Amino acid sequence: MPLLSLPRIFRTTVETIPAATSYLRADAAKLARWREALSGVSALKVGVVWAGNPRHKGDCQRSLPAAAVLPRLVAPGVQLYSLQKEPRPDDAPVLRRLGPDIVDLAPTLGDFADTAAAVCALDLVIAVDTSVAHLAGALGRPVWMLCPYALDWRWLRDRADTPWYPTMRLFRQDKPQAWERVLARMSDELARVAAGERELLLPSRLAR
To answer: What is the pTM of this model?
Structure first.
């Protein structure tokens, strides 16, 4: 049967979604290497993915140019890391201008096992609705997802968290293609986290 028919077959409700805080684990040896590599960084370590596969039929609703996202996330006490595979041509100049504020990890990420280990060595992942956002959620890592206005049924409505991934916060558009307020809010909250409000990393029901 189709995979997405299973919730109907099992009569799944919001209350019965089987969402453990994490159900994937990073390879221990790879994770140890990443932690060692990043051990000298005292700033908040934030991985970023700003675009998905351009061949996806809904890509224009979810993906953003690097210029719209990355400069908004630069803040005192924050070190950005690009997890973006195959950046688009217009992204390269943005990465160069940001200089040491962002480190490109993409060349070292050969597969999802590598990405999982890198994600687990970071403090936060900020991503559009792509595989990396889902991977971070499945690993139980703090992840902030940029959500377009029109979403499929999995993301429900009018809530800033998701029962599928208990450590994920949703930053939703309030109307189609309206990213400005979303990015402004995310930028503000990231600066607050870097300043010490670590409870903002997680949905409010977990931030205790």
So the answer is: 0.92
